[in-house]
Structures
1.
Amino acid sequence: MTEPETIIRIAARGDGVTASGMHVAGGVPGDVISADGTLTPGPHHVDPPCRHFATCGGCQLQQADEDTLRQFVTDRVLHAADAQQIDIGEVLPTHLSPPRTRRRATLHALRTAHGSVMGFRESGSHRIVDLQECHIIVPELFDLVTPLKELVALHGEKRPLDIELTVTDQGVDCTLKGIEAEGLAATEGLLDFARENGLARLSLDRGYGAETVWEPEPLTITLGDIPVPFPQGSFLQPTGDGEKVLIDDAIDFCAGAATIADLFSGLGTFAFALCGPRKVLAVEAARDAHLACKAAANARQAPVLTLHRDLFRNPLQPDEAGRFGAIVLDPPRAGAREQILQIAASEATRVAYVSCNPVSWSRDARVLIDAGFRLEKLRPVGQFRWSTHVELTSYFTR
């Protein structure tokens, strides 16, 4: 490079990209790269709020201002659609979750000679960043970092362990993966820890699944207006504000439909928000989530019928999919190709597709488009603030 270049966009993995295609770590649009590789910050380059940024792998884009973050999320989704030559009817405003709103997180910890370290891992490394602050998780979770470090120093093994934290209706659900805690004294120590720190549930996973140590009352998560049992390790949308946007879009997209199929339904995030007076079929492969959804629906006599079914191996067939006024999908990152093929071959006319992976979504969307669907609405969603992980809602009709 002989002349300075200006970064014009942020690539999918978070690098700044110039017009010539050069990738620059930490660059954002407007930054200038000199001939010797020096980066001169532009108008959209800000000081990262967290002292751990650039080492902690939890965030990749804290150097980008709000407008740039929003544009990055938007571009990721629109470029995915463009790559499959998909015409978009309406692009809805991009949603970006605020700082300190992540209500679930998996932290890593390690007992050391002088105590313990706990936090996220460094990017591309197994080394743990010892958190002194965090601008993404809710304060309720960060407040547990210091007490958990003390617990790990007492009971941790000399190998890394994972700590899953989730905010539920009753408080924080905490699962420790990798602590043996054998013996009466260790068990009493865990009970004291849970009680003193106001945990809603404390569980241990020694490699055979989570075992509850402390749970004063059964944990729930309210979906719609229905409290749903919350099994250990259950999937939950990362932020409350993001979940509301996804649900509101699903309600809008399914307006007027008397019957709805909620596929990959999990605990019932969409099913319970959509039901009444509409009838909803909630289909889920994970048994714990299916049973929790079923129990909640039965307890409140909600018009939600639950079905335990693996939609990858046994998708709804065309004659089944065609019976519903609208179909909602929220599949894993791999997408839902087998199910989408069956929907495309059915008489279904309305599909609300929520995705956490624009690339797999765009491939599935292409199948729907080729079958006569139109992409009416598309909303980019950034629940994982300052990361390269992007989500979306979309609405197809034919």
2.
Amino acid sequence: MQKILFSAAEFCTEFVYVLQPDFDKNLYLFDKKLKTYYSDWSSHTAQMTSYDFFRICKRLREGGTIKDFVIFKAHPIRRSSDPRIHPIDSPINQHEYDRSKHPVKPMHIRLKDVYENIGLLLILKDDFSADDSLKKICRGGKVIYDSRNIKNI
């Protein structure tokens, strides 16, 4: 993933935007006998966590490839009844939960800090308006790390 982000930053002039499934809460969901529909997609080989992205972005920033970066979560999942949530024993490579073809799941569990997506905004130049972009792309989510607020990482 580092090579991909490096190449994207070298090619672009203002920013790089990445949005992918969020894998940070797999253990939390597993403890509840749940998973996201994409947790075990066989073709999704880049199961990056927020810490994985942080380590890569920190290296890119220290090497001068990027100016700053923001890691954020988008599209919250608040309850186990959400169709993006499956029971742990649901088959692999599924999409939205369908009670007519998937195993029974508990529908009443409130979920904490579970999001469908994790995103990155790599800032490549000082005068890029990152805050305006974040308002548009974060969509009900939250910023979990912003290197502009912490200059000595």
